Amino acid sequence: MKKVIIVGGxxxxxxxxxxxxxxxxxxxLEITLVNDKNESSFLPLLPDCLGRGVRTExxxxxxxxxxxxxxxxxxxxxxxxxxxxxxxxATSALSLNYDFLIIASGSETNFYGRExxxxxxxxxxxxxxxxxxxxxxxxxxxxxxxxxxxxxxxxEVATNLRLYLDKKGLKQxxxxxxxxxxxxxxxxxxxxxxxxxxxxxxxxxxxxNIVIDKTEESFVQLSDGSIFKNALLVWAAGVKTxxxxxxxxxEKNAQGRIKVDDYLRLDDSCFVVGDAALFAQNNxxxxxxxxxxxxxxxxxxxxxxxxxxxxxxxRYKPIDFGYIIPMANNKACGTILGMNIKGFFPxxxxxxxxxxxxxxxxxxxxxxKDLLKGG
Length: 375
Ligand SMILES: Cc1cc2nc3c(=O)[nH]c(=O)nc-3n(C[C@H](O)[C@H](O)[C@H](O)COP(=O)(O)OP(=O)(O)OC[C@H]3O[C@@H](n4cnc5c(N)ncnc54)[C@H](O)[C@@H]3O)c2cc1C
Prior knowledge:
The protein has helices at 11-20, 63-66, 115-120, 127-139, 152-168, 189-201, 243-246, 290-309, 345-357, 360-373, and strands at 2-7, 29-35, 39-41, 60-62, 73-76, 79-83, 88-91, 95-97, 100-103, 107-109, 144-148, 173-177, 204-207, 212-216, 219-222, 227-229, 231-235, 239-241, 258-259, 270-272, 277-278, 280-281, 284-285, 322-327, 331-336, 339-343. It is an alpha/beta fold.
């Protein structure tokens, strides 16, 4: 019997499971999925829970229900360490041996070690975080709405907060605070121009070359000295991989993504997929995205089957369909199949892909209903 452990039940981990599961009897596999929560959230629609009224219940994949026939083990626990030499995964409570390990633990908000920020701000890592922000919006009347970080997530959150306020007839300031000289980092200038002009139209301010200096509960001080009292701050200023990866003595980038080879391997028994993997392509590295997580999971599962059958491995060849930056006033821009697009059409594409990739018919129909209703 071969023991296969999948760490993380997000897009990549479930893609591995959905294939490898079919071989459990034929290849005599003992499969264990380890996830730190009972459920996994559909992350791309979390910002839409704030403004568009998408309900978090439609974004949940209940991992305990995947195992209804009991054909694999589900361990709800946090992985705290991995010993690659001894082939052991340590969770808070268990020690698990493996023949094949797939690290699919994704990424989480990076507070860059600043504990006071972690305590005082909101983040958007899962459905519970979206619920917490939504509750705060309903309960408190904030005077300011700040978003740290002008990347994809920060822009989506800012436009959704503006939409929420518009629906309530409120005019409070929504401000994106960006430490770099422009939002959206390495993206092409035309996209930045389009997004900035749309943010202006939505009355969302962007402060460049500014960082968050100090936070207390509902209090924010910026590096230019400005002070915001009674403020809500959502931290979208970067991500990092899971903490257990920090202790792995392997090649990683600043975000802790693990450098993998052409087959997404770290060694002969360990594969890394999704956000946790740093895959080089054309002198660059693949960005974090759902499409890559799913396709990498698929590739690794098939390669594990090949190894057991004694067949040669196939290389992971990424296919990039493109990306879209959706904004809550129904404007978006992006690149799809090499074509630059902007306006309303990319919004349709974005939600079509989200519905297509969301988990199960109930969630799909729920998302469609929520989007049509508009919260
Ligand atoms: C707000 C937001 C919006 C986004 N929008 C888009 C978008 O529009 N399009 C797009 O392509 N991508 C988008 N992304 C990125 C995309 O969601 C990720 O690239 C994708 O989720 C990566 O899949 P994954 O399987 O690697 O990780 P995840 O889907 O994050 O799954 C990781 C799983 O591992 C579990 N886990 C983590 N640490 C541990 C541990 N120590 N022990 C056990 N389990 C653990 C987590 O609970 C989680 O279930 C967005 C991300 C965010 C946060």
